[in-house]
Amino acid sequence: MQWTSLQNVAPGLTNLLAYERSWLKPDIRAGLSVAAVALPVAIAYAELAGVSAIVGLYSCILPMIAYAIFGSSRQLIVGPDAATCAVIAAVVTPLAAGNTELHWQLTIVMTLMMGTWCLIASRFRLGAIADLLSRPILNGLLNGVALTIIVNQISKVLGYTSPSSELIERILALPENLLSSHWPTMGISLLTLLILLGVHYARPNWPAPLFAVVLTTALAWAANLPRFGIETVSGYTGGGLPMVSWPDFKPGLLRDLVIPALNLAVVSFVSMMLTARSFAAKNGYEVDAD
Question: Running along the chain, 290 residues long, what does each successive block of 10 average in pLDDT?
């Protein structure tokens, strides 16, 4: 009975307790491969969400540890992705109104709300909701998010400042903004793209994002690229977890986050379940939606 209860609460932990020594070597290789790709991408996701790079690193590491204990999929990787970060930024940025500290606080609160919604759904066995949303609906949503990400990030890739935060206005202003692009920034962006494509085609099994980050970081340090007006990742230089203070947080903003957090929880859950079920079907086991 105790083993069954443990398996229901922490199925990943039960798998760890029955871990076979022969799995260790391939698991180490898999872990290194995932880390090589996930860590540099996490920095990009942090930028997308409007928080510091260190936040992206921790949000990449800690959820994986938690899911290894409480999750039921053996292949699923849990952490921030482009869709969730883009949605969080779209909701939080207007509320923060340029206040960096408030942006950070609202991001934390929205994330906690999303987790709370997921816990409530699990408590009431609402995992069947994954059967109600089809792949085309999810693909349509993700394609819309992808378009939003491209439009919002192109100013950083080309090195110009967009005065508007609205998607349509940014698209309409794109031809004019292209004329004010920052050429050194554009050059680094192009170099990064070439590294990604080159590594991908020359060595498909190598972690292209890691190579791109390492090489361009080394170039930025060696050539002192900030002197050419190229912005670099900054904002946190200490060790340990990033600290948060709450002096200016307005509790009234909570009501503006409740429904967006619920929507994000549903979308993230359905996307995760579609992926987890595909892996489970391929490898001959079942995942618990709750």
Answer: 59 76 82 76 80 80 82 74 81 83 85 87 75 68 74 80 71 80 87 90 82 84 82 58 63 83 82 72 70
Domain encompassing residue 176:
1-182+240-283
Q: Which residues make Cβ contacts (< 8 Å) with residue 237, sequence separation at least 6?
A: none
Cβ neighbours for 234, distance < 8 A, ≥ 6 positions apart: none
d(Cα 87, Cα 170) in Å, to the nearest integer?
Answer: 17
Q: How many residues does the chain have?
A: 290
Tell me what pLDDT residue 194 has: 93
What is the reported pLDDT for 241? Answer: 62
Q: How far is CA 168 from the centre of its chain?
A: 24
- Is 264 a domain residue? yes
Is 37 contained in some domain?
yes
Structure tokens at 15: 């798998």
Question: Does this model's pTM top 0.85?
Answer: no
What does the alpha-carbon distance between residue 34 and residue 21 come to, in Å, rounded to a whole number?
Answer: 20
Crossing angle of the two packed helices 100-123 and 82-96, in degrees rounded to 10: 130
Flag whether 209 is in a domain: no
Which two tokens mark 72?
A: 């039921």
Instruction: With beta carbons less than 8 A apart as the criterion, state whether 149 and 82 touch.
Output: yes
Burial of 286 (0-12, 13-18, 19+ CB in 10 A): exposed
How many folded domains does the chain comprise?
1
Instruction: Count other Cβ atoms within 10 Å, centred on residue 211.
Output: 19
Report CA Rg, the chain. Answer: 21
**What is the 3-state secondary structure of 211-279?**
HHHHHHHHHHHHCCHHHHCCCCCCCCCCCCCCCCCCCCCCHHHHHHHHHHHHHHHHHHHHHHHHHHHHH
What's the count of helices (H) and strands (E) in the chain, helices before strands? Answer: 11, 0
Contact (CB, 8 A) for 11 and 71: yes
Is residue 229 in some structural domain?
no
The rounded distance, in Å, linking the Cα atoms of 46 and 60 is 10
